[in-house]
Amino acid sequence: MRLQESGEMYLESIYVLSKKQKYVRSIDISEYMGYSKPSVSRAMNLLKTNGYIVMDEENYITLTQTGKEIAEKIYSRHTVLTKMLIGLGVPQDVAAEDACRMEHTISDVSFAAIKRHMEEMST
């Protein structure tokens, strides 16, 4: 099943938050993303049902292996695309916003070429 863009955004947010803090809860995601608590709750239930996250008895959220792989992929795309756009002279806030949209639609082939080019340019 192909995960929708919103699901990818939630997984990426959980990933980013988990790198900053020991525990991630729905309220943390709600505050980080600026979404309502009920919206986040619905999304967490869908992600849990589809095997992307687990929630323990205290409602702490952890990415499953599949969820983590997707989150890392999206986060990598976001950071590389943001750096590329900044390197082209796009203001940082615009670059981050545009990268956020691009990260969900760019093909693996195109992204690999961009990433390879960025790595070559930095050496």
Kindly describe this structure.
It is a single chain. By secondary structure, the chain is mainly alpha-helical. The chain has 2 domains: 5-69, Winged helix-like DNA-binding domain superfamily/Winged helix DNA-binding domain (Arc Repressor Mutant, subunit A, Orthogonal Bundle), CATH 1.10.10; 74-122, Diphtheria Toxin Repressor, domain 2. Helix content is 70%, strand content 5%. It is built from 6 helices and 2 strands, in the order H-H-H-E-E-H-H-H. It has a two-stranded antiparallel sheet. A hairpin with a 5-residue loop joins strand 1 (53-55) and strand 2 (61-63). The longest helix is centred in the middle third of the chain and has 23 residues, at 65-87. The radius of gyration is 15 Å and the shape is elongated. The termini are far apart.
Q: TL;DR of this structure?
A:
Helix content is 70%, strand content 5%.
Strand content: under 5%
Report mean pLDDT, rounded to a whole number.
Answer: 94
Order of helices and strands: HHHEEHHH
Extended strand count: 2
Q: Terminal Cα separation, in Å?
A: 38 Å
Largest sheet: 2 strands, antiparallel
What spatial form do the alpha-carbon principal axes imply? Answer: elongated
| Domain module tally | 2
Structural class: mainly alpha
The share of residues in helices is 55-70%
CATH superfamily (homologous) name of the largest domain: Winged helix-like DNA-binding domain superfamily/Winged helix DNA-binding domain
Architecture (CATH level 2) name of the largest domain:
Orthogonal Bundle
The first-level CATH class of the largest domain is given as Mainly Alpha
Q: Which residues sit in consecutive blocks of at least 5 with pLDDT less than 50?
A: none
Instruction: List the strand order in the largest sheet.
Output: 1-2
H/I helix tally:
6
Radius of gyration: 15 Å
Q: Within the CATH hierarchy, at the fold level, what is the topology of the largest domain?
A: Arc Repressor Mutant, subunit A
